[in-house]
beta-N-acetylhexosaminidase
Amino acid sequence: MRRSAQNGDTVSEPAVVPAPRLLQAGSSAPFAVTADVAVSGPADAVRTLRDAVRSRTGLDLPASPDGAAVTLAIEPGSPESYVLDVDAASVRLLAADDAGLFYGVHTLVQLLAQDETGWVVPDVHLEDAPRFAYRGVMLDVARHFHGLDTVTAYIERAAALKFNVLHLHLSDDQGWRIEVPSRPLLTARASGSAVGGDGGGFFTRDDYRAIVAHAAAHHMTVVPEIDVPGHTHAVSLAYPEVCAPPAISDHLRDEARQRGEALPIAGIAYEGIAVGFSSLRIDDEDTDRFLADVIGDVAEITPGPYVHIGGDEAHGTPPADFARFMERATRLVASLGRTPIAWHEAGAAAGLAPGSIGQYWGFRTPTDGMDEKARAFVRGGGQLILSPADAVYLDMKPDADFALGLTWANGPTTLRRSYDWDPAAVIDGVGDEEIHGVEAPLWTETARDLADIDALAFPRIAAAAEAAWSPALGSDARRTWDSFRERVAQLAPLWTRRGIGFTPLAEVDWTRE
Ligand code: ACM
């Protein structure tokens, strides 16, 4: 905990990220966390708290049926909300539901600090609830495959920042990553490749079920994405009859030459990072059967309400064909009782399934009519997920010299740029009512393992968490860059203790323990 002078008084500034709705720091003595402090409440929340305190402090707090100094309980309130009261004698966490308890526990763990006496929690009254219902992170397991251990670790990292959705980008030109029983050749023939000739891999159905279960245990929903009709070169290794030949444009030739990459050839694994050349065959019964098989099998093992069907960068698909295809694909998802999500380009299609959700990945200031395509989802009775690429694409370089990452989204994305934007200020006519939530994607052209993912995602993922959870940018003194810069600095010891290899960007004066 930091102390700073205000009006001559010394006031505490407990650091919570994402910023809570209300935090009042008191002036009485802190609550001392010692090995005999008992915890009572619902078993899952007690376990979460005891595990988190043990990993942070080494203290093994006893669980107690009741009468404990640390009490966790459920009390009616808005979804995912909680109230936390700490004074010298007790810690009381009241939450509306299990998710609220989980988030309150993670707030409490962020408040843990060491003073001369040992571990303490400062005197605070804190009321908190999310701004948006959908708070996502996306992991691209197609450009590079990331296995069960990495995905479960990423779930734990994201959930601790109050994200509640894991979107898995399961298919792309470079590889197919999910077992589909009705189409066994996808994993047999199209999963072995990745960017740069690195090895591939895929999730079995049991792997995927394990991810879904681990996510659920951390109050996260898994959204599977099967990206169609573009980003489908890998399919040509398994079911060539449903794929159009690669569309080799002059732009693609130039890009490939500059990077020294081979051009895509149907039926041969693609290891480059260019986009926009592949397409499924449209208006083709084989393709329609293929899509129904794949989406049906993926939906079957997905308990969550959403299936993402991509729709981005389908430059190899003629526009009218693209529109008809996305209409059919969203209707297929809806027929399975799920809400379709698609990247904003699909808003070009007039007849998407009503209520389809669009994911906007243009810049904070929209270009090229991307905002109009995004607004079409709202006109169709749906909402938008905001993922402005020049703010929350975690795979962008944080500075020009960074070894990992890309720069196409308006150059490097500094921590400040990832923080200084508000979801309701991106697309005209799209305010809080029209916004389903915020999602921070991490594409993995350059990310080969968890260390790379950590180095790219942290600390900018914390800025995205704040856009998704906290009140609007600038709505109070805490929702400012200056406050965030100070608060995020104080997470460094916690992240280090958890083994998170964050990048100590020079924009922040990081706390050392
Ligand atoms: C995207 O970045 N192509 C969604």
Notes: The two ends are 11 Å apart (CA to CA).
